[in-house]
Structures are given as C-alpha cells and as structure tokens.
Amino acid sequence: MIKIKRIFIENLGIYKNKEFLFDHPCCLIVDKNEAGKSLLANSILETLYPSKQTQIPLINGKITVDIESDSDFYQIVRNYSEYKIFKNGNPVKYETKNRGRIIKKSPGELIFNLSREVFINTSFLTQKAGLNLKEIYSVTAFLEKAIDTGFQDASASMALTKIKEALFDSIHSGTLFPFTTRGKLDTAIKTWKEKIVEYEEKKSHLKISLEKQAEIIENYAQLMDELGNINDSLIKLESNYFKWKIDRDNVYRKEIEKLEKRNQELKDVKPLLSFYINFENLKPEEQQFIILYENEMQSLLQNLRLKQQRQREITGLSRKIYFLSILLALLSIIAGFINKTFFYTITICIPLLFYLGKLYIENKKLQHEIRELKFKNEELSQHIDQLISKFSISDREEFLNIFKKMNIHKIHIKEFIENSKKIEELKKNLLSNEELDFYKSRIFIETEINEEDIEKYEQKREELLKRKEQIKDELHQLQSEYEKILQSRKEIEKIEEQIEISSRYLETLEKFKKALQKSYEIIESITKKHHKLWAERLNTAGSKLLSRITGKTVEIFFNQDLSFIVKIPEIEYPLADKEIEKKLSGGMAEQIYLTVRLILSQALSSNVKVPIILDEPFAHSDDERFVKGMKFLIEEIAKSNQVIIISCHQHRLSLLKELEGSFKLISVK
Length: 669
Known about the structure:
Blueprint: E1 3-12, E2 15-21, E3 26-30, H1 37-48, E4 62-68, E5 73-78, E6 83-87, E7 90-91, E8 95-98, E9 101-104, H2 107-112, H3 116-122, E10 124-125, H4 133-148, H5 154-171, H6 185-210, H7 213-265, H8 273-281, H9 284-338, H10 340-343, H11 349-389, H12 396-408, H13 410-429, H14 433-441, H15 451-455, H16 457-550, E11 555-558, E12 564-567, E13 575-576, H17 580-583, H18 586-604, E14 612-615, H19 623-640, E15 643-647, E16 664-666
Parallel strand pairs: 3-15, 3-16, 10-14, 14-15
Antiparallel strand pairs: 1-2, 1-4, 4-5, 5-6, 6-7, 8-9, 11-12, 12-13
C-alpha cells in the first residue's frame, strides 16, 4: 500500500506554514466552505502531477509531500518553476531520452505508475466529477488497453511481448525502417516498394547511357585514326618545309657570295658611300639646290660679269660724252662772241646731254641688279656652306668635286648599297649550324616542292593543328562520357545490390506482416475472451459494491467494450450508461459512478495500491446513503487503499458516531 504521510504548505493562499499529517488509513477532513479544503486537494494533485497551467497560486509558494510505500520513502518538493523527487533521501532522475526526444515523467507516474488522466478519473475525485461519464470512459479505454496487453494474463502478454520484441529488434533497428515513424508496418512496406520502383527507374535510366558505349568506342577509334593521319600529314608537311628551308638557305648563301663578289668589284666607290648617304638624307629641295648650285652659280657670276662690264662701258662713255659736251659748249660760246650765228651751235649739246641722262639711268639700274646678284651670290654661298657642314667637309671646291664624282658613280654606289642591304637581309635568314642539323634530322621524305606549296604551308599547318586540338577536346569529352558510363556501371551494381537488399527487406516485412496479422488474430481471440472474463469480474465486483453502498440489490453489467448498464429494482428494464443521469436521482447516479471508479481503481492498481482522494463524494446523497457510503469506504476500501475524504458537511459528523476510531478527523485550521 502506498500512503501519503505528510503535506507541508508554505505561502500558498491562506496557508503560510501549514503541516498535514495523514497517519491513519482513513482520514476525514471536514471544515466549512472557503476554509481551504479544495486548495489542499489541488495542492496534492499539482504536486503529484504538475501541469503547465496550475490552478493554485504557486508564485511564491512551496509544497512538500511525503509518500511511503512498503519498502521506499519518497519526498516531492514543488514550487512555481520546478519540482524535485527524492527516493530514500536521494534525488530521482525523471528525464529520459528516447530517439532524441526528452521524456519527463511526473512524480505520480514514477510512484503510482498511472497517468494524470487515469489518476484523476479513478483515485482523485473532485467535487461533482462523479457525474462526468466521458471521464469514466477514458479510464475504461485505458483498462481496455491494459486488458489487451495482457494486464493480468500471462499468455496474451507473452504473445504481445514477443511481437513487440520482433518489431523493435528486427524492424526499428533502423534497417528495415528507413524513417523515424514507428509501428507503421504498411507505411514501411509501401516505402520499400516505392524505393524498389525508384531504383528500377534509375537503373533503366542508367542502362540507356550504357547503350552509348559502343558508339563512344567507335567514335573514339575514328578520332584516333584521324589524329594519326593528322600527325602523319604534319610530319610530311614539316619534312617538306624543312627541306625547303635548307634548299633556300643554300640559295641564300650562293646569292650572298655573288653579291659580295660584285661589291668587291665596286670597292672603289666605297669612299663615296658616306657622302652619298648624307646626300640622300637631305631634303629633296636641298638635294635639288646642290645639283643646280654650280650651274646657277656660274650663270649668276657670268651675268654679274656682263653687267659689271656694261657698267664700266657706260661709265667710260658717260665720261667721254660729258667732256665732249663741255668742250662743245665752250666752243659755241667762244664762237658766238666772234659770230653770233655760231652762238646757236650750243644747241648741239642738248642731245648729248639727253643721251648722257639715259646712260645715267641705265647705270643706276645696273647698279641695282649688280647688288641683287651679289646678294643672291652671298645667299647661295651661305646656303651651300650650311649644307656642306652636314658632310664634314670644310672646302667648297672639294665638296663640289666629290659631288661630281658621286654623280658620275651614282649607279654603282646605289648598286653597292643595295647589294649590302641584300647581303644583310640574306644573312638574317641564314640557318645556324644547330638549325641545319635539326632540320636535316627531321627530313623523312625527299620530295620536290614549289613556292606555292610553301606559301600555303602556314595555312595548312594551322588548319591541321587546329583540327588536332579539336580532336583532343573531342577525345577528352568521349573519355569523360566513357568514365561516366563506367561510373554508371558501378552505380547499376550498387542499385542492383540495393534492389536485392530492398527486396529482401520487403519480403521480410511482408512475411512479418502476415505473421503479425496471424498473431493479432490469435491475440484478438484471446483478448475477446479476456474482455468477457474481465466483464464478468467487473460485473461481480460492481454488483457487490453497489449493493453494499446503496443497500439495494443493484446489478451492473459490463459489455465487452467495457460500456455498462445498471439494473435496479425500481425500474423494470436495465439502464444504459447514458440513461443513468436522466432516470435516476443525483445521489443514486453519484453512487453508481463512484462504484465504477472504485472498481476501475482496484483493477488498475492491483499491484500498486494508490491513495484514493475524494472531495465531497456524497454531495448529492441523502443521510442514509451518506452513512452507508462512508461506512463502505472506511470499513472496506481503507483496508487495501489509503482513503482521504474531504467534506464541508460538518453536521453529518454526528451520523458517524458508530464509526469513531475507524478514521482520523483532520481540520484545515
């Protein structure tokens, strides 16, 4: 038997520091309304089964409950935020992990092995709760499950245990169930069928890629043949090209020898090369000036000499005419004094003076022209001197002599320079000894080639090399595709292995399903018998309890689904559970529901006798039924279970005088 020994409440409602001692199998707590009885009952419930939304003001409060079993002592400490459990003075771990989930058990689940719902609907009766038929049915469903799992029958329990072991050991090991959902065998079978279909589709898809293998190999062989032909063509092309390079080198060497021999013949013009080069570097107008300089200068000097000679002639003639005119004028004057007729002979001097003036004008003009010619001569001399300074020659006559000589040998000088340039260009194209040796070693085909083929050499070579790179890329792509095919083969092997494994798993699951169905058929047959047996047991116990409580011959009959009907003397026909509240008084219905709860509580706690806490169990009963019911609880139920009864009917205590000593009276004050 499990007993609540002590409850200590701190700072909770009207209780500041209140201790309750339950040292009797049957404790009766009687006090007036609003004295704190319901608060005490709810404190017990919230300590045993803590809820997220508690109905008691636990903000600053604390509850300590001491519970004693046949061999162990438990203490539960409850405050607003947490609870702690101690067993024989040691903390108890009430959190466990199951497949990654944290499962927390309440103190009632650990000590009583009952859920909150079952405890409330069997062992903890709040005021007027006895009229709630739905809560009773939730417990009957729990009892039905307990019967199904062989609660009190070894054969059914053993059969189901074996099935569960097979399920969790064989299936839920993670091998046959590739997901976290537990217990859905049909879902597992469907999943493996879908996986096999998925594997088959993937396998078919991969096999399509395998069909390309022959085509890839054929294309690869063709490309390799083409690559070999290209390499042969490149070898032939390069061999011809190298032979042409060697032949051309021989031609260049002969040409150089010929040009050097010709330049040797023209060696006399070699001193004139620098002068010619400097001359060619001049501007075209400067070259033209030098070419025309000597002739222009000779023409200018000749013109200057002629004009100077004419000037001298004019000067001499002007003097003669001038003196002649003076002489004639004097003679005319003298003759005029002798004979006036001769005086007019002076007019003969007028034409002479006029001619003299003409000569004077011509002389002035000649002077101007002479000055211009001298200026031009000076200008030409300065210009030629400037140009001569570019030739590193100081003497003008020497420059002109060299220039004349250069003009005479100009053709040969040009030839010499051109030959020298050709020799330099040809020498640049000559092959070194290393190149000659290399080219000779690479000549495999002795063929005659022409210049047109050489001109197309680079184009052909570029085309071949480009195609060669394309073939390499295509070969690389084919190799990649072939590697994918090899990978596909490996994947197909893996998929076939997965299909084989999946098929085995599916076969195992289907066999297991058949075995499970057969097992359930057998267990269903067994549980039906058990239901019938339990119903008979509950009928006997229920009828006996009802008769004791009511004092009448009342019978209760449980069906195989644990629904029940009641037969009482006042009513001719049996009453179904839904008709009890309609056809019977509140007190009678209350006694029936209390009886059903007590029956279920005794059935569910056959191994662990949990305390029974009743808040106003006979609120709707008359005094006679109250006495009979209390007497039954004190004399019968308290023998196997601790009974705690809470009531506000103080006036009814006088009705229990004959039971004094059989219970302990406790006040909440």
